[in-house]
């Protein structure tokens, strides 16, 4: 039986998770601002090459978002599992939280002429992650939103109808099977989809968060136990990276990397979530106001930031300024100006646009720590 109300680790507001969101979005910004925007090989300074190359790990911020989604969404669903009005309130809240800003971003892309025709339909139906070979390349961050929406489409039914005693083994099986499916797809010309974008192949990220949500409602109740489990997860994740490094676990173009690249980071991120819930650590994280602010605007900032990188590049090409490749100071300037503008725009969106829909959305009748 699930009795989440007795677990002191779960609160109405969990500031540690806001901090993790902030870390995730900052990681994505750094990745898109440096490694994704310029070839590190074109910089003459060795230290600059190494810095730009290391920012590639910022893409893991998306995986951290997936783990957080798996944890929070599963918590909401487990807490309301017995409610008669189970599906309707959940989907109303998700639609009002996600769709308005998403459609606003699409509208901006339409006005700018960056989206049209079948590409619009692909985005509206959240299929971007499945259309990697389509002539319409798409807007860089939409693939992960498609993954999220596909997860929302099927996960509530799984939580509702799967016997609760089978839920934990089911999530464990996803964590085990997904790397095998990634290896199979990689070895057969991506027959099951892109190993880093197909929802089925990266479902272990959501399952990892779901395992934490279930564990915190059944047996993982004491802060000491959570700290021990978090330490074990982080240690196993780091050890896996150290052992697998020589086998190419960090490189996508190897079979080992295709199958296992994200697995050790999944363990580390699950450990981070548990650490963030421990009262003493949560109290310290509650004082990290800057990171909480980035967590507060994370959805809009994730949606809009590439628009401002594109705006900078358009202005640069119009004014015949030097390109960023090979010019580190210009790349840094581009990053600072674009991100500052994106932060301001995202705050306005969150405060005056997204907040309207958050106020009018229906709320669950039962009090739920995860729902907050």
Question: How would you explain this protein's 3D organization?
Answer:
- By secondary structure, the chain is an all-alpha fold.
- Helices cover 67% and strands 0% of the residues.
- The protein has 15 helices and no strands.
Top keywords for this entry?
0% strand, mainly alpha, 67% helix, 372 residues, globular, single chain
How would you concisely characterize the structure shown here?
The protein is built from 15 helices and no strands. The protein has 372 residues and is mainly α.
Layout of strands and helices, then pairs:
Elements: H1 15-33, H2 46-54, H3 60-79, H4 87-111, H5 118-124, H6 142-161, H7 164-187, H8 203-215, H9 223-244, H10 255-260, H11 263-277, H12 279-285, H13 289-296, H14 298-319, H15 328-360
Q: How large a portion of the residues is in β-strands, by DSSP E?
A: under 5%
- For the CA atoms, what is the radius of gyration? 21 Å
- Bin the helical content: 55-70%
Basic shape: globular
Number of helices: 15
N-to-C span: 22 Å
Biggest sheet record: none
- SSE ordering: HHHHHHHHHHHHHHH
Number of strands: 0
Helix/strand/pairing category: mainly alpha
Q: Calculate the mean pLDDT score and round it.
A: 90
Low-confidence stretches: 364-372
């Amino acid at each position: 039986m699930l009795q989440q109300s007795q677990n002191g680790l779960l609160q109405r507001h969990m500031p540690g998770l806001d901090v993790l969101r902030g870390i995730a979005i900052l990681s994505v910004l750094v990745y898109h601002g440096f490694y994704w925007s310029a070839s590190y090989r074109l910089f003459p300074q060795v230290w600059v090459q190494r810095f730009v190359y290391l920012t590639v790990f910022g893409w893991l911020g998306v995986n951290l978002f997936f783990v957080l989604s798996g944890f929070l969404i599963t918590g909401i669903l487990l807490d309301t599992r017995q409610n008669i009005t189970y599906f309707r309130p959940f989907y109303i809240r998700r639609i009002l939280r996600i769709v308005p800003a998403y459609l606003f971003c699409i509208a901006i892309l339409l006005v700018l002429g960056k989206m049209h025709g079948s590409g619009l339909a692909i985005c509206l139906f959240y299929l971007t992650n499945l259309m990697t070979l389509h002539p319409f390349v798409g807007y860089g961050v939409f693939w992960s939103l498609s993954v999220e929406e596909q997860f929302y489409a099927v996960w509530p039914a799984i939580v509702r109808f799967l016997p609760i005693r089978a839920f934990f083994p089911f999530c464990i099986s996803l964590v085990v099977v997904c790397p095998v499916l990634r290896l199979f797809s990689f070895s057969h010309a991506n027959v099951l989809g892109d190993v880093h974008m197909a929802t089925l192949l990266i479902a272990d990220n959501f399952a990892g968060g779901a395992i934490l949500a279930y564990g915190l409602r059944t047996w993982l109740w004491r802060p000491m136990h959570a700290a021990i489990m978090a330490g074990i997860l982080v240690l196993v994740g780091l050890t896996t990276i150290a052992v697998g490094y020589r086998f190419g676990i960090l490189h996508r173009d190897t079979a080992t990397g295709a199958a296992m690249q994200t697995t050790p980071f999944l363990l580390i991120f699950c450990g981070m979530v548990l650490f963030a819930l421990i009262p003493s650590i949560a109290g310290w994280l509650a004082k990290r106001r800057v990171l909480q602010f980035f967590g507060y605007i994370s959805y809009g900032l994730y949606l809009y930031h590439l628009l401002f990188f594109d705006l900078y590049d358009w202005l640069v090409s119009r004014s015949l300024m030097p390109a960023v490749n090979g010019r580190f100071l210009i790349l840094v300037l581009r990053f600072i100006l674009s991100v500052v503008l994106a932060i301001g725009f995202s705050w306005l969106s969150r405060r005056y646009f997204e907040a309207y829909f958050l106020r009018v959305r229906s709320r669950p009748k039962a009090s739920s720590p995860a729902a907050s």
